[in-house]
Design a protein that fits this description.
206 residues; 34% helix; 7 helices; alpha/beta; globular; two-stranded antiparallel ribbon
Length: 206
């Protein structure tokens, strides 16, 4: 598959596939990389004549310390999408894990044709509260400290939790979800609630 490195709205990106008016905006997960070719969707993309724009450097915290926060990543995604719109007539979204949540937060007022979400985080507040419980941290403690590192490698953040609560998700784009019932980040109840609220379907015919 052809591969071109470029910048879109100041964000490093990689464009995979032949020139096309159809494109997937690929937002990888926390430990993903735009330089790594999207493995799962590559064959369907070729069949549909679509190319892939893989972006979102800020989901790699070891490369961009301190930038894995929604008020930064969503702004980047919105800027990228605004640049994409005049170039590609048909834009779809492919998001993985936290990348799917970032994409939904950033683009919920836009109109991508469709979205395919793989193991998406769909209730970030619930996830953060579960991590707080696991770490034995109360809201009062987190509020007072601002940030609290945990023994399991995550840093709890009061500004992050507040942002999540101030920006509820209202996702109405036609969506299909590829998800395992044993997913450790999104429980079955949260996923079913997301499907009911958004009309998202299991990934059978993407």
């Amino acid at each position: 598959m052809e591969k071109i490195k470029l910048e879109v709205a100041g964000v490093p990106a990689v464009l995979y596939g032949k020139r096309s008016r159809k494109v997937y905006l690929y937002v990888h997960g926390k430990n993903g990389s735009a330089a790594r070719q999207p493995a799962l969707p590559a064959q369907p993309a070729r069949q549909a004549g679509r190319c892939w724009l893989s972006i979102c450097r800020s989901t790699a915290p070891e490369k961009q310390p301190g930038k894995l926060v929604p008020w930064v990543v969503t702004r980047e995604l919105q800027a990228v999408y605004a640049r994409m719109h005049p170039v590609w007539k048909h834009i779809r979204v492919y998001g993985v894990s936290i990348g799917a949540w970032f994409a939904m937060q950033a683009l919920q007022t836009q109109k991508p044709e469709k979205a395919l979400l793989v193991s998406p985080i769909v209730d970030m507040e619930k996830l953060i509260l579960a991590l707080m419980q696991q770490a034995g941290v109360t809201e009062e403690q987190l509020h007072a400290a601002g940030e609290i590192p945990t023994d399991f490698g995550e840093t709890l953040s009061w500004p992050y939790l507040c942002w999540v609560r101030e920006h509820p998700l209202h996702w109405k784009v036609p969506t299909q979800v590829l998800y395992a019932d044993t997913d450790p980040l999104t429980g079955h109840t949260a996923m079913e609630r997301f499907r009911q609220q958004t009309g998202a379907l299991p990934d059978h015919s993407w």
